[in-house]
Design goal:
alpha/beta, 6 helices, 6 strands, 35% helix
């Protein structure tokens, strides 16, 4: 059975660790934690990777039906995410139809998730870069709602501003739910995962 590449998008380094643009990293970290895996940075891949197996959503542990998964956190900046995704896809020989990208989504409120395959990039530079690297946008996306910035705040400033302590618990709950959604997508397929998690 072919492995899956699950990519959490974000920016590397402590400056960006607690920002809305890094919710993809948060989800990848949660999936690694569940599998008792750890990230390493192989030479030449421009990413941190964790090779592991993921159990079916909510099953706990890792049984015989667990999926082989490579979790990826690009070490490029968001706008160059495709460099890392392209290298990992080639190195692990994983085609776009077995790639899942978890990313922040301004057009969904916090507490909303949407799973889909393919579609446009909706102005998201990380997704544009991945499309350019893979030559297609036909991969799976888990869109993690972060909501629109308040007032007249610029979106670029909003996504890179640290998440406030009052909102942080809600983001962590949603990161756990997004991890559940990834597990469901891999174990049960897109339609079933959409029925359970799309909101």
């Amino acid at each position: 059975m072919s492995a899956w590449l699950v990519v959490g998008l974000g920016n590397p380094g402590p400056t960006y660790a607690n920002t809305r643009h890094n919710v993809g990293f948060m989800v990848a970290d949660e999936l690694a934690r569940r599998a008792s895996g750890s990230f390493a940075a192989p030479r030449g891949l421009r990413a941190e990777v964790c090779e592991t197996r993921l159990a079916a959503s909510g099953m706990g542990g890792v049984g015989a039906d667990a999926q082989r998964v490579v979790l990826v956190k690009p070490r490029t900046f968001m706008n160059d995410s495709g460099l890392a995704v392209g290298k990992a896809s080639a190195f692990y020989k994983i085609a776009p139809e077995h790639i899942v990208v978890v990313h922040d989504e301004l057009d969904l409120d916090l507490g909303q998730l949407r799973l889909k395959r393919g579609g446009g990039d909706n102005g998201h530079n990380g997704l544009k870069s991945i499309r350019a690297a893979l030559g297609t946008g036909d991969y799976y996306r888990v869109r993690f709602g972060i909501g629109r910035p308040p007032g007249r705040q610029e979106p670029a400033d909003y996504v890179l501003r640290p998440i406030s302590a009052s909102v942080r618990p809600d983001v962590e709950i949603e990161a756990s739910r997004a991890a559940d959604a990834v597990e469901a997508l891999l174990s049960d397929g897109l339609a079933d995962a959409q029925n359970r998690f799309n909101s």
